[in-house]
Amino acid sequence: xKFTIAHASGxxxxxxxxxxxxxxxxxxxxxASPLAVLYPWLDPDKHRMGIYGRLCSPxxxxxxxxxxxxxLPIERTAGEADDDDA
Length: 86
Prior knowledge:
Organism: Brenneria alni
Protein name: RnfH family protein
InterPro entries: Mopterin_synth/thiamin_S_b, RnfH, RnfH_sf
Pfam families: Ub-RnfH
Strand order of the largest sheet: 2-1-5-3-4
Largest sheet: 5 strands, mixed
CATH architecture of the domain at 1-16 and 32-74: Roll
Family: Belongs to the UPF0125 (RnfH) family.
Number of strands: 5
């Protein structure tokens, strides 16, 4: 099965074409990819992951042609958090 795995970190974007036998979970895809070596601080159990912008569990299975994405955490200051109450 062929799929893409992607991550953006600051000004750097990485996208890797992968091929693995089915079934494959998001976690397995990430751990088998070069992104796990390039970004060792990424943890599939702590960082959100998704397929085509839709959040998914790391244990979700991927399908032929999917784009697996690893997202950075959203960091907000206390002032930004207060804006939600308005």
